[in-house]
Specification:
Blueprint: H1 6-14, H2 21-29, H3 50-65, H4 76-85, H5 92-95, H6 98-118
Helix pairs in contact: 1-2, 2-3, 3-4, 3-6, 4-6
Length: 127
């Protein structure tokens, strides 16, 4: 439950600045699901801001490709298949805006290129 609160914590932090209101909107809503049942507010369909629907696809792609302590990173082809066709954890018809999934299907190689270009980049130095 505490992990799920990252959406509201991020929103609270970001909406302190008028310049970051779009980022605050994304932080709050990027885990809502097209069919409902997401968090933190259980929004569905067009009630989810388009900014958050777009970032949700990128966030899921990144999560699938990234290595985690509990899983290996997936290849582009595996991530593409899961986003377009689903698996035991994700049903794309319930999770994503169908128009955005069509766009993702058409532009997925751009995601692969960005991933490949950035995967070995060092993290920015703290200032």
């Amino acid at each position: 439950a505490e992990m799920d609160r990252h959406t509201t914590y991020g929103h609270q932090i970001l909406c302190d600045s008028p310049r970051l209101l779009l980022a605050a909107e994304i932080a709050l809503n990027h885990h809502e699901k097209w069919a409902g049942g997401g968090y933190p507010n259980g929004l569905a369909g067009a009630d989810i801001p388009i900014s958050a629907r777009i970032v949700q696809v990128a966030d899921i792609y990144d999560a699938l490709r990234s290595e985690r302590p509990y899983k290996a990173g997936f290849s582009h082809e595996q991530a593409l298949d899961i986003i377009l066709n689903g698996d035991d954890r994700l049903d794309p018809r319930e999770h994503f805006d169908p128009q955005l999934i069509e766009l993702f299907a058409d532009t997925h190689m751009g995601f692969a290129k960005i991933w490949d270009d950035l995967k070995d980049s060092p993290a920015p130095a703290a200032s």
